[in-house]
Amino acid sequence: MRAADRLVTETVRRGGPWLAVLAVTSVLGAFAQLALPLVLGRTVDELVADGTGAATWLGACAGVVILTVACDTLGVWASGSSGARSSAWLRERVVRGVLGIGPTITRRFPEGDLVTRMGLNTEEIGHAPESLVTGAALVIPTAGGIVALTLIDPPLTATLVVGLVLIALVLRAFLTVSTAIAGDYQAAQGDIAARLVDALAGARTIAAAGTADRERARVLTALPLLRRHAMAMWRANARAGVQAGAVVPLLEVAVLGVGGLRLAAGDLTAGELYAAARYVVLGAGLGSALGYIGRLARARAAAARVDELVAESPRAYGTRPLPPGPGRLELRGVDAGGLREVDLVIPGGQAVAVVGRSGAGKSLLAAVAGRLVDPRHGTVHLDGVPLPELSREALRRAVGYAFERPVLLGDTVAAAIALGVDTSARTPGTGRRGRRRTGEGQAERPGANREVVRAAARAARADTFVRRLPLGYDTPLQEAPMSGGERQRLGLARAFAQGRRLLILDDATSSLDTVTERQVARTLSGELRDRTRLIVTHRVATAAAADRVIWLDDGRVRACGSHRALWADPAYRAVFQAGAS
Ligand SMILES: Nc1ncnc2c1ncn2[C@@H]1O[C@H](COP(=O)(O)OP(=O)(O)OP(=O)(O)O)[C@@H](O)[C@H]1O
């Protein structure tokens, strides 16, 4: 729990100035509470005596009550604001961290579980500032109670201290137990979210199979567990509440008994006895920290889950730029999960097809070639530079990826294509470069961006259907329902617009009709021929059109050569005849 506690502390510190306001109001409120019995006691004594000073003390009572209410009100505001700031800081950090790790994060954490950790759990940690500061402020009346009782009558203090030790033990045990229960509860929540996200991703399949009921049961598998944890939390709460609550009346009885005897003996005044009874209740008020401790327990449990994300090392980038070169790719002794001992040299400017049966490691090779995945062993060089030594910017500009099922990101169609585009990029096939606006020096020339986007869309044969959309390139993505092939073409356009030296197409033309695929193939071997092209494919025509073919089998390079030469091997032909399955 130590790492989780560190994360909670760090998050609390990010509450900003509102945290200070919360601390001040909590401390002032606590002192006001502490002062109330004193002023009430003095008022009683004045009234019992001649009553001449009673008005002054009544005024003091009113002042203390007003201060208490003001502190409470401002405290609520400050706790909300500091909590919101803390959560916002943590969310920013976690989202940045998770996105910085790259695609491997979803191999460790299911997507729904990730969303729960980044959403619900970070919000729970956001309650920590209030729980910690307000809870800690409860120590003030307790300490004040001890001091005041000591001043009134030292023997009464011993009674209070014994009661406080009992309450502290109850609270400590409650924190430990409820942190564990809250962790189990949150894990069950994550499980439900993970299954739900899977179900939503497969909504079409579920509808087609008519298995919605079965799916509902599968998504809610953890529901009984969730209930059990919730009940356990309530039981722990009730147990601790009863234990801490029982101490207070017992203490009161003990103090009133002892105090009564001392009043009879003339060692205490009636006002002092009244004040002593109030201070005991105030001192034992530590028991009301239960609510704060419950919230703190949930924050700690949530922090343990969020810390697992924060502890994942983000992908490290180097600082080197990419020197001029043709886009030569070299893999040496690469081992990565499903890939073993891969040694390859792909000369710059070649179109290389990657073929093999399903599961042979083609996508993994594509991922390693552009550093979506780092190999466990071995190195990948682009124009002589190991990929991890390249700066993020250099890598992003050099490598463009297109996938079989591209996810389009951005507000509009143009933005989806321009994702990650540097407008100094050369427009595909034109040799022209987009220009930056001079003068201010920061803003890109919008026209340049548009030029790159259009050229890339033309190269991917997407321009015609995009122009037919209601607002053309400015059509919001949500208002542009697209077929699988159209999405693939936008995915291709995005890759063409971005990757200046290496294009990696992972089954990225599989949904295109034959005519469009042929047109894209012509672009690849025509205006894009100056870039190295790594094309994962199941289609024989694509392999035949490539300069050479890498044939993968069970994670290893089985052969590498021209399609024509490889075709002589019946096992190679079988890769296509069997549909690579
Ligand atoms: N990031 C990764 N890290 C480790 N192993 C991986 C990774 N991605 C995939 N694998 C494993 O590598 C093997 C090959 O998967 P890959 O997706 O590369 O096959 P493929 O040849 O592209 O198959 P298909 O033609 O069906 O798409 C699989 O066993 C998979 O579990």
UniProtKB/TrEMBL annotation:
Q: Matching PROSITE patterns, A to Z?
A: ABC_TM1F, ABC_TRANSPORTER_1, ABC_TRANSPORTER_2
Q: What is this protein called?
A: ABC transporter ATP-binding protein
What is a single Pfam family found in this protein's UniProt entry? ABC_tran
Task: Name the major location.
Answer: membrane
Its subcellular locations are: Cell membrane
GO MF terms, alphabetically ordered: ATP binding
Q: Does the keyword Transmembrane apply?
A: yes
Residues of the region (Disordered) are 424-449
**Residue ranges of the ABC transmembrane type-1 domain?**
20-298
Positions with biased composition (Basic and acidic residues): 437-449
Q: Which PANTHER family match?
A: ATP-BINDING CASSETTE SUB-FAMILY B MEMBER 10, MITOCHONDRIAL, ATP-DEPENDENT PERMEASE MDL1, MITOCHONDRIAL
Q: Domain ABC transporter: where?
A: 304-579
Question: Which keywords, in A-to-Z order, does the entry hold?
Answer: ATP-binding, Membrane, Nucleotide-binding, Transmembrane, Transmembrane helix
Natural source organism: Streptosporangium amethystogenes subsp. fukuiense
Transmembrane segments in this chain: where? 16-36, 56-77, 132-152, 158-175, 240-261, 273-293
The source's superkingdom equals Bacteria
Q: Topologically, how does it sit relative to the membrane?
A: Multi-pass membrane protein
